Amino acid sequence: MSQESKDPKIPKFPSLFPAKAEPSSPFYAMLQSAPQDYLLQQDEQHESPLDYPVYYFFYGTLTAPSQLKRIIDLADEPKLRKAEIFGYTIANWGDYPALINVRQGQVVTGYAYLIRSKEEAQKLSYYETNAYTVADCWIYFRDEEEPKEVGGKVFMYAGDAQALLEQRFDRKLWRRQMGGKLG
């Protein structure tokens, strides 16, 4: 027996669990008692930003203010904020650091900067190449300024993260992928 949603914007799905199913774990029981649209709801507190400005978290070459200034064509050196993100680790992708998902408790320290426009974000993406993809993250600042935490963006490795963790790296393939972007 499925519950019907009264909100016309919420799609009508059958119940996640049959009515006569026996819960085999507390998690199963919790999901069975959850509202029908539970899995479709976004966490309001950690909702990712859709517009600019938006903080980007940096952990590699972009932590150097002079490098960031050059890449996004700023008049002055940017003021970076010391920050960290949880649930990630850094692996080596050739000569470059690559952020990948890992166990929940791990932390990556770096810096965050408020990217003010889509054009600045595009310049960053061009610099990072297709080897990285932009992902949502939750940034925790480690300074005395506000905000103390915020939803933001980060560049994550777009390739085989497991290969990086196992230190299986093909330098010839990496050089071909990087093309003229080396140095």
Task: Describe this structure as you would to a colleague.
There is one protein chain. The chain is of the alpha+beta class and 183 residues long. The protein has a single domain, classed as Hypothetical upf0131 protein ytfp (Roll). The protein is 21% helix and 28% strand. The protein contains 5 helices and 7 strands. It has a 5-stranded mixed beta barrel with strand order 1-5-2-6-7. Strands 3-4 form a two-stranded antiparallel sheet. The protein is globular. The N terminus is likely disordered.
Question: What is the CA-based Rg, rounded?
Answer: 21 Å
| Coarse structural class | alpha+beta
How are the strands of the biggest sheet laid out side by side? 1-5-2-6-7
Number of strands: 7
Helical residue percent band:
10-25%
Notable characteristics:
5 helices; single chain; 183 residues; five-stranded mixed beta barrel; 7 strands; two-stranded antiparallel ribbon; globular; alpha+beta; disordered N terminus; transferase activity; Hypothetical upf0131 protein ytfp
